[in-house]
């Protein structure tokens, strides 16, 4: 590793909290928006962006604002996902959900605020050229919007109480969860100005990672400890959701995860002569549930 990723992950919180703090017209919005950032979370998407930049030996400073913006969008999606109209959850990141603390209206607005303000960070990023900032805004809006996370979330809601095939479920995950996991890698290859071949291998890697992430989430919903995951377990079964575990059993889900890990590894191996994939392999190893 050429960069100290942990050190940069701490800076993500500083950047977001400082952007949301200060003298804004509503103290409540500042407080509610900052609450969910301060609640923690793994910062997986920023970590992924930094690991991908590290592969190209690009200074991580160049990805700080974009990684912060993606984390803000991710946090907004969790606040809205927990609302009574959506998943109606009362625990997230080990703390009461945003609407339990601030009420529904403020939680909706805090989510809207995190989404909207995220783009401020990117357009004002002086470490990047105007053209790169514009391209990053396009990539991230695309990942979060109607052909990305929002589209996937709507498909998910429409599938509730319906019989859906496993292929339909994978499509939902690909958009709802996967697009915001691909976004940091897409952003990093854009900042690094990667050649088309390297970029396409890394993007395919990130798509497999999105699926691995979802299988992991489904497994942890069954085997996880609330003290570790920070959210109530067993919620998929209670809501009668089709998951990798309900479709294939626990062992079957782990096998599927292993298959996707191998495919993701193959994409990294295809580019190992041109970039240093050490950190990206670490990402994979961290997220693959092997024998627990
Ligand atoms: C409501 C606009 C809107 C979108 C919802 C992604 C999503 C879309 C909702 C989250 C639902 C969910 C639990 C999906 C499973 C995978 C996932 C995204 C888990 C949470 O991400 P982590 O594990 O969370 O990175 P932390 O708290 O660590 O940041």
TrEMBL record:
It comes from the Bacteria. The keyword Acyltransferase does not apply. Keywords: Isoprene biosynthesis, Magnesium, Metal-binding, Transferase. Its EC number is 2.5.1.10. Its cofactor is Mg(2+). It catalyses: isopentenyl diphosphate + (2E)-geranyl diphosphate = (2E,6E)-farnesyl diphosphate + diphosphate. SUPFAM superfamilies: Terpenoid synthases. GO terms for biological process: terpenoid biosynthetic process. InterPro entries: Isoprenoid_synthase_dom_sf, Polyprenyl_synt, Polyprenyl_synt_CS, Prenyl_diphosphate_synthase. GO terms for molecular function: (2E,6E)-farnesyl diphosphate synthase activity; metal ion binding. GO terms for cellular component: cytoplasm. Belongs to the FPP/GGPP synthase family. This is Farnesyl diphosphate synthase. It comes from Salinicoccus kekensis. The lineage of its organism: Bacteria, Bacillati, Bacillota, Bacilli, Bacillales.
